Amino acid sequence: MDVELDDQRIPALHAQGTQTVLIGLPDDPRQLSWSTTTSPPSGALCADHLADLDHQDVGFIRYGSGVYERQAGYAARALSGFREHAEQRGLRFLHRPCEGSYESTAWTPL
């Protein structure tokens, strides 16, 4: 779980020669078995749903900043899908990592 985009554990898994299934997806998933529930389509669906409801200003509040800093694949992909569709649909959005406090996620008008 918590597979990073450039996950350094994957070469070690290949070197061991044992079968491994990842929950998450690195940038290069060749020769891997994997599963994920957070992907660009999930972020895109959220952006499209909000646009379909005629929202214009939206916030993307998810995961702590450390998750994005270490480039966890699930977080990066969901944000990229959301960003892409928000831009296509003309939504203005603010991405705010959630550090677990009100102050870290308080809305600031765009």
Shape: elongated
Mean of residue pLDDT values: 81
**Beta strand %:** 5-15%
* Poorly predicted sequence stretches spanning 5 or more consecutive residues: none
Q: Helices and strands, in N-to-C order?
A: HEEHEHHEH
Strand arrangement, largest sheet? 1-2
User: Alpha-carbon distance between the termini?
Assistant: 34 Å
InterPro entries: Peripla_BP_I
What keywords describe this structure?
single chain; 110 residues; alpha/beta; 2 domains; two-stranded parallel ribbon; 5 helices; 4 strands; elongated; Peripla_BP_I
Polypeptide structure, described:
With 110 residues, this protein is an alpha/beta fold. The protein folds into 2 domains: 1-37, no CATH class; 38-109, no CATH class. It has 5 helices and 4 strands; from the N terminus they run H-E-E-H-E-H-H-E-H. It has helices at residues 9-16, 40-52, 65-69, 73-88, 102-105, and strands spanning 21-23, 33-35, 57-61, 92-96. It has a two-stranded parallel ribbon. A two-stranded parallel sheet has the order 3-4. Helix 2 (40-52) packs parallel to helix 4. 20% of the residues are buried. The model has no long low-confidence stretch (mean pLDDT 81).
Summarize this, please?
This protein has 5 helices and 4 strands, in the order αββαβααβα. It is α/β, with parallel strands linked by helices and 110 residues long.
How is the secondary structure organized here?
Blueprint (H helix, E strand, L loop, with lengths): L8 H8 L4 E3 L9 E3 L4 H13 L4 E5 L3 H5 L3 H16 L3 E5 L5 H4 L5
Parallel strand pairs: 1-2, 3-4
